[in-house]
Amino acid sequence: MRVGSWGILVLSLGAAAGCQPKAETAEQAQARMDTETAAVRTVIDSVTREFTTHFNQGHGDIVAGYYGEQAHLMPPNMPVAVGREAIKAAFAPFFTMKPDLKLTPDAVVANGPLAIERGTYSLTYTPPGATAPVTDTGKYLVHWHLLDGKWMLVDDIWNSDLPAMPMGPPAQKP
Amino acid sequence: MRPFTALLPLALLAACRPKAEPPEAAMTRQAADQQAAEDAIRPLVERFVTHYNSGHADSLAAFYAPDAHLMPSNLPAVVGQAAIQAAFEQAAKSKGTLKLVTEAITASGDLAVERGTYEETYTLPGNPAPSADRGKYLVHWRRIGGKWLIVDDIANSDLPVPAPPKP
């Protein structure tokens, strides 16, 4: 059984070589990202449902709480809002307009503590002075980060698919 | 000796099982990922601006992944390199001068996100006076086959929508 002993020796050396730390192969990295992405997708779907419920009820503190402390909210036709207080203030005008926000995450990708979500939105609201609600539709991109064990929005930007319209009451016909 | 040698490979194989990366190793790897991504992406942003300001739509399209999403304000999303090239050909007609300021790049492995601000002056065809715009953007970069490509690109203006003309 000398051959058998050699076999064990070769196997041992092979196994030992396999233990040295080395970079992931492209396939291993892809497999890991797929697993991480699936896990994050579940979290994002659930947070998105909670977020829209609170948004539509005008719970500014709770909505701002989904953002990181130094998060950047980047609304169209407004300057960037940095931090939870500023984010709450930026959302405040929407809360007075009976918002009905729907978010549809179209693509999520994650790697370690970083995740990126692309989606589409529809927002129905009643501008001040208007008698009927209007609906805006568009697209968004969110940078999520795992902060102290919790996935938070760190950068949030969107824009409309529709031609530019000033927010406010529609022009009065004479 | 036999039982011992027989167990040796098993012990080594057990040591090879995938295990969680120690926190220090993860931090070192993430710092290296971060630096590598910044070193690669910042020059790409500069080259992008040069091509934009020269109206090179084909060169601009090559910065994007084959199934990339370009998401301009007040227009539907533009998907794929060919459609993105057509969108840049259209944009080139207003002879824009673009400035980009990268404010943050966050990377993890082959994934990175870049946040920044833009300024652009342009002249719409048929309009003698130039217009100016400024705003913010977010770009999702992905390293594909060793090359950083744009997967998602979205921007919006800081400026209010101009009021409609009085009737």
Written overview of the protein:
The complex is a heterodimer of chains A (174) and B (167). With 174 residues, chain A is an alpha+beta fold. Chain A has one domain: Roll (Nuclear Transport Factor 2, Chain: A). Helices cover 37% and strands 34% of the residues of chain A. Chain A has helices at residues 2-18, 26-56, 60-64, 84-95, and strands spanning 67-74, 81-82, 100-111, 114-125, 134-147, 150-160. The model of chain A is unreliable at 8-18 and 168-174 (pLDDT under 50). With 167 residues, chain B is α+β, with helices and mostly antiparallel strands. Chain B has one domain (24-157): Roll (Nuclear Transport Factor 2, Chain: A). In chain B, 38% of the residues lie in helices and 35% in strands. In chain B, a hairpin with an 8-residue loop joins strand 4 and strand 5 (131-144). The longest helix of chain B is centred in the N-terminal third of the chain and has 32 residues, at 23-54. The radius of gyration of chain B is 23 Å and the shape is elongated. Chains A and B meet through helix 1, strand 3, strand 4, strand 5 and strand 6 of A and helix 1, helix 2, strand 3, strand 4 and strand 5 of B.
What's the order of the H and E elements of chain A? Answer: HHHEEHEEEE
Side-by-side strand order of the widest sheet of chain B: 2-1-6-5-4-3
In what order do the strands lie side by side in the largest sheet of chain A? 2-1-6-5-4-3
Number of helices of chain A: 4
Which blocks of ≥5 consecutive residues of chain A have pLDDT under 50?
8-18, 168-174
CATH class assignment of chain A: Alpha Beta
Percent range for β-strand residues of chain B: 35-45%
For the biggest sheet of chain B, the summary is: 6 strands, mixed
Give the N-terminus to C-terminus distance of chain B in angstroms.
Answer: 99 Å
Ranges of chain B where pLDDT stays below 50 over 5 or more residues in a row are none
Content of β-strand of chain A: 25-35%
CATH level 1 class label of chain B: Alpha Beta
> How many angstroms separate the termini of chain A?
104 Å
Please state the overall shape of chain B, judged from the principal axes of the Cα atoms: elongated
Looking at the overall shape, the CATH architecture of chain B is Roll
Q: What is the averaged pLDDT score of chain A?
A: 87
> Compute the gyration radius of chain A: what is it?
24 Å
Number of domains of chain A: 1
Give the CA-based shape of chain A.
elongated
In CATH terms, what is the fold-level topology of chain A? Nuclear Transport Factor 2, Chain: A
Give the radius of gyration of chain B. 23 Å
